[in-house]
Design brief:
By secondary structure, this protein is an alpha/beta fold. Helices cover 30% and strands 20% of the residues. It has a 9-stranded mixed sheet with strand order 2-1-3-4-8-9-10-11-12.
């Protein structure tokens, strides 16, 4: 259950108007053809018990924040799990007020966690009345916790984690989902639907081994989870089946939530909150964002890559680049659905300015096309600085088409994300995959994260397989088609294709992604991307050239039919010491002659400026103004963007 600064919190999000008619007649249909509202959220929060909804909506409008998330968790509090009516009435009331104001609202519910308040003073707790519902470790120990186990659990409270296979619990849970959807609320926000493996002492349990879950696994595989597995041994075929089963469980759980909600209100959105990203934690807790994106409408990532307290104020440059690699992966997994980021900028770090930290976090996210949620400390509610948030949201609002219109590939190098390889060989795969992504960002090459869902549609000239060890027959067939079309495969580390020698296949047995990860993680400032020159040489030419410091993370895409370059500057940042970047001067963009045209530069928190170009042999070079935190460059050329870039609506208007 997510930590909250208040017992009941309203988180307010800025979003585009809905593109459909709501059952509530007060909801205006302002932009009939606008993209979905969830793609444009700008996220903030207020405590419901300190003010009323009318005041919150007024403050939201003032701060350029729009949409209301009600935290009156029915599923995660045993008292309301038994009797939800009072909270259902509150949800209906907030939804109606939000709609009258032209707003949107969605409600927080827990996934599998449930708290009984003052459990030490009542016989009526979930664990006491339904012990069979609880997740358990392999020795039968139930997932029951008290105050101090997590900072959101009060002394005397009972915190339990329920197996999603508990038949009676799941029936009641889904009934509540349908009742919530019937209130007219616009979305259901499901917090951490996980197996209990993240509290102290539970990290290596690979739970749950309760009777319901063991029986479900037996029915699906014929195996006894308590006897037939070598827990934690990924070379054991039976343990791999357990890993797959656990992950599939929560994908289907979220799919069932979505189906139940939409059976009552077809327009309602389901939004899970997930903290694991692309790394091994996704396998351990069983919530894999790659698998979840197809069955939900958006995902909120509490993705905290970095050391220590995970604050923006504490991040080093490597942390920022690795964080960016995660977000680029999420955007690829989403396939056009929105990526919300709930992360934290500052928590009392006396040596680092909170406003700078907030701006750094927002910049890093919007340059990746993700939606920014400002929150203080490790709370979901409030802001470290409301004036800074207002400035950020106003600027994002004014330029939302630049950041949130679809980003389409032009002439990218592909980097393959293999879910099954990550599931069974997480550390080796991520080291290779992330190392290559950071290398391409530092060399300012256009890249595209490719997955099994998007492999057939990938048309870039080269595809990198970063230590990929597992391919399905379908994946191999698609790779053969890709090669037959004259494209190039670049295999680093292990070669699971078994395609044999070919002029279109280049092998790097000494994996450059892993090799480059070592200096990146050791001393990022001294890591030299050109140390991998042999690997870089086989990637081919990039139509759009970017000459900039390797401390700038770059991504290139077509937006609204125009080539865009998104630049995030992390030069000079030092965790707990310095949150102000070294200003970058003389960054140059070189484009082919047919793409030359009117060029524009948008500095982070600044205004759009025209950029003049100078003709070179076969192309045009644009020298950019100074870049402090980040910037976007684009060209309105007469010629269409290169292959893969479909036309899109013209850049116009904001969502209100």
């Amino acid at each position: 259950m997510k930590p909250r600064s208040l017992t009941a919190v309203i988180a307010v999000l800025f979003a585009a108007p809905l593109t459909f008619a709501q059952a509530d007649s007060h909801v205006p249909d302002v932009h009939a053809n606008a993209p979905d509202w969830v793609n444009y959220v700008r996220i903030g929060a207020w405590g419901l018990d300190r003010t009323d909804a009318d005041t919150i909506v007024t403050k939201a409008t003032r701060d350029d924040v729009f949409g209301i998330e009600v935290d009156n968790d029915i599923e995660g509090r045993y008292e309301s799990f038994i009797n939800p009516q009072e909270k259902l009435n509150a949800i209906r009331s907030v939804a109606e007020k939000a709609h009258r104001a032209g707003n949107r609202a969605f409600v927080y519910v827990a996934g599998t966690e449930c708290i009984t308040a003052h459990a030490d003073k009542t016989p009526h707790t979930l664990a006491k009345e339904h012990p069979d519902w609880l997740q358990r470790d392999i020795n039968g120990k139930p997932a029951i916790f008290g105050g101090g186990s997590a900072f959101w659990i009060e002394p005397g409270d009972e915190d339990v984690w329920v197996t999603p296979y508990a038949t009676e619990w799941r029936k009641i849970y889904m009934q509540h989902i349908r009742e919530i959807a019937a209130t007219g609320i616009d979305g259901i926000y499901v917090d951490i639907p996980y197996w209990m493996t993240h509290f102290e002492g539970w990290e290596n349990t690979w739970a749950s081994f309760d009777d319901y879950t063991v029986a479900a696994f037996k029915q699906q595989t014929g195996l006894d989870a308590k006897k037939d597995l070598k827990l934690g041994d990924f070379s054991d075929p039976n343990f791999r089946k357990w890993v797959d089963f656990r992950m599939d469980t929560f994908t289907k759980f979220m799919q069932e939530i979505d189906q139940n909600a939409k059976s009552v209100n077809p327009q309602i959105k389901t939004i899970p909150e997930i903290y694991p990203g692309i790394e091994e934690e996704a396998v351990r807790v069983g919530a894999d964002v790659y698998s979840l994106y197809p069955v939900v409408d958006a995902i909120t990532h509490e993705y905290e890559f970095g050391e220590g307290d995970h604050m923006a104020s504490s991040r080093m440059p490597f942390d920022w680049f690795a964080y960016r690699a995660g977000m680029e992966s999420f955007r690829a997994f989403a396939q056009g659905k929105p990526t919300w980021i709930l992360n934290y900028s500052w928590d009392g770090d006396e040596k680092v300015d909170k406003k700078e930290s907030m701006e750094n976090l927002a910049m890093s996210q919007v340059m990746a096309g993700a939606n920014f949620w400002d929150a203080p400390g490790h709370s979901m509610a409030g802001s470290n600085d409301e004036a800074t948030r207002q400035k950020l949201f106003s600027w994002i609002h004014a330029h939302e088409q630049t950041f949130y219109a679809p980003r389409l590939p032009m002439h990218p190098v592909g980097v393959y994300f293999s879910p099954q390889t990550r599931n069974y060989y997480a550390k080796d795969f991520i080291k290779s995959y992330r190392g290559i992504l950071i290398l391409l960002m530092q060399k300012h090459l256009e890249f595209q994260v490719v997955t099994p869902r998007t492999l057939a549609a990938f048309h870039g000239p080269a595809l990198i397989l970063p230590d990929v060890r597992i391919f399905s027959d379908e994946e191999k067939s698609q790779l053969k088609t890709y090669l037959a079309n004259g494209n190039k495969l670049i295999v680093t580390g292990n070669d699971a294709t078994k395609f044999g020698a070919s002029s279109n296949i280049v092998h790097f047995p000494n994996d450059p992604g892993k090799a480059y990860s070592t200096p990146l993680e050791g001393d990022f400032a001294k890591a030299n991307p050109d140390s991998q020159r042999d690997f870089l040489a086989v990637l081919g030419e990039n139509p759009i050239g970017v000459e900039a410091s390797s401390q700038i993370a770059t991504s290139i895409a077509s937006v609204n039919g125009m080539p865009h370059v998104f630049l995030a500057n992390f030069a000079g940042l030092q965790g707990h010491v310095n949150p102000i970047q070294t200003v970058q001067k003389g960054v140059r963009i070189i484009v082919p002659g047919q793409l030359a045209g009117n060029a524009y530069f948008l500095p982070f928190l600044g205004d759009v400026k025209p950029v003049s170009g100078a003709t070179l042999a076969g192309g045009t070079v644009y020298v950019l103004p100074e870049i402090s935190k980040g910037a976007v460059f684009w060209i309105e050329s007469a010629a269409p963007a290169p292959s893969g870039a479909a036309s899109a609506p013209a850049r116009a208007g904001g969502h209100k």
